[in-house]
Amino acid sequence: MVSRRTFLLGATALGALAPWRGIAQAITPTTHATVPGLSRPIEIVDDRWGVPHIRARTKADAFFGQGYVVARDRLFQIDFAHRREMGRMAEAFGAAFAVHDAKARLFHYRGDLEAELAHVPSPVLDCVRGYVAGINARIAEVEHDPTLLPLEYRILGVMPLRWELRDLVLARSGSVGNVDDEIRRAMLAAMGRLDLDRLVAPLRPATAMTVPEGLDPAQVSEADMGVLQLGPLPFGPGTRTRDRDEMLSATNAGSNAWTVAGRRTATGRPILANDPHLGIGGFGPRHVAHLTAPGLDVIGGGAPGLAGIMQGHTDRFAFGRTNFHIDQEDMFVLDLHPDDPERYRHDGGWTRFERQVIDIPVKDAPPYRAVLRYSVQGPVVSHDPARSRATAIASVGMQPGGSGAFSMVAINLAQDWAGLREAFRLHPSPTNFHYADVRGHHAWQAIGFWPERKRGKGLLPVPGDGRYDWVGMRDFRALPGEFDPAKGWFASANQNNLPPGWPVERSPAFSFRDPARYDRIAETLSKQTRHSLADSVALQHDTLSSLARRFQAMLPRQPSPEARAAVAMLSRWDARIDGASAAAALYEVVLRELNARMVAALVPESARDLIPAIEPPELLRVAADRPDLIDQSLAIGWTEAARLLGPDPTGWRWEALHRVRITHPLARIPAIAAAFPVIEIGGSGGDGFTVMARWLGDGPDWRVGGGASYLEVIDVGDWDRSLMLNLPGQSNDPRSPHRQDQVGAWSVGTMQPMPFSRSSVDAVAATITRLQPERSIS
């Protein structure tokens, strides 16, 4: 049974609880609860920004506290994602969700779960077990006291699921990955126009692209995606398809991170900055927490539902991350036996699919029966006996050790660089890991699992007859890194950061991003010999566009009369994508007009569904040969800007178009929309190629679709001077003061404190929660 009582802690109670004595606690509202799963009491001090500082006596209990607070602040967010990954939507929401459940279960791990758990070091396993227990403890509280339930549960008529440690190993989050790129290339190859793929996804590093031996590209279609094509969950109208802006958004996603050595900073201490770029518009992708126990002291942003801190610092080192690029998925085309579609050609013979028949529980209906098939390569996503054809996906996530559920905890428990390198063995996802420590060192290491292929580069679908199978897996030891770089700083922004001379045939991917953001970061850091925290904050919010500079150099010297006004405005512009800039608004409108005209000029009608838009850096490259289209786009863009923003150009503002708003992901349900008011943030500067990345969303308008919602700047060693932002706030609950209390600061780029020492935390304590175990342990 869970008991809870709240009171204002007085002098007598303070004396009785001497182990928790603190400066601010005598006047801080305090709550007590008894919960299952703890081994010792823990204290949670929530500061004025809603950040929980968890004080525990064991590391596992500290992670219990993290699970508890993320469930307290984000229960529906983590529960909904967990239910979806476990394939348990239909039992709560009905028959329309059963096919989505079948897809989720198709990507559940097929190997030995106990062997997977045995592979994890016991201290890490204990902490993740504690995290799961913390989530379940909060679920037990809301079951006992339904007034604590997030509003979604009452509206939807469901209750949260209890978590199990094995679930974290089982669910492998099947996703498209880069398989849609493979399909597109094959379809272009069938048209004889594989060259057009460069317009939408130029290969970085550059490499020759050919059709794999044995593949008939004319037979490849989007139908080969099979269940990967399932649309949004059917909570209401509004199903959308992949359009030009969504494709551009995908090319813009990424993050920034840099470290600066103490010899190049104003304080003589290293600085680490990181602003991961993720979607903006739904649930916040980071939840900040501080975990303290003997041998553990770590604070920063974590992914709700994943144990540990992803970006932040311990008492010994700071750490950050951006996406590295490793091609971790391949599509295999399987030939079915003409008389038995449950067999496929492989290694010179016929191999039978592994089949699993499952019954998925469905609310108010009989169970939904699904047949799941697996080839030697992986889950079968399309099975088409009429065409004697099937497709299967090989993915790193489905391999032994492919679960990332333990990687963050391993990193948080590390004490130094050597310990981190051991932790990297548990980290399958491709990441640039940034590091700076109190001894003055800073480093970078590319980490992640990398498949070994018998042949091929993973750029197009391949025959599943055995010639292209995966034969092994590499880890971070096959990838580059650097310790104490000579130049005194290191940055990554998803660009190709393979070292000079790295053989192209050993590239782990060919999908690195355009270096525009990195170039601007490098330009700035290389000039600053006394870099400060304020300099890092300013750089995170920098809007200077190298692409805009390139476009300015392409402006016609003798424009047509219709384009003259646009040329005049853009030639005087400082190339900053500022929210208050008229020229920035014009530039963005003109670039969209130019994109449409270049597509019409370069892409045949038959290929425009595959190439609906051109990647902006490629757009400027190909547009250099078409000054006539540049002039036309300037003229039409001026007219379009006037239509969108009014006839007076002095009143134009990029922020008037580039709006930021946050809505509940299930706002298509009227009761959800009513209970969770839209968070209107206003206009923003930046675009997908500025350091302050704010790329376009997935619709025809100009709203922000993603960028940096969590930002940190870490003063390595003087931890209390570190800074952060977390949009829109710590809680998803509209009843909480921390649902959107970071919005104003985020809008203007004002960073918030990141208190770390006990005295600094106590000085800003807002509430205290003390959790006691159900059974005390002596």
Q: How would you explain this protein's 3D organization?
A:
It is built from 24 helices and 32 strands. With about 775 residues, the chain is an alpha+beta fold. It has a domain of about 110 residues: Penicillin amidase (Acylase) alpha subunit, N-terminal domain. It has a 12-stranded mixed sheet. Strands 5, 6, 24, 27, 28, 29, 30 and 31 form an 8-stranded antiparallel sheet that branches. A 4-stranded mixed sheet has the order 16-17-11-21, with no helix packed on it. A hairpin with a 7-residue loop joins β29 and β30. α18 packs across α19 and α18 packs across α20. It is globular, with a radius of gyration of 27 Å.
Features:
8-stranded antiparallel sheet; alpha+beta; 12-stranded mixed sheet; disordered N terminus; 778 residues; Penicillin amidase (Acylase) alpha subunit, N-terminal domain; 24 helices; 30% helix; single chain
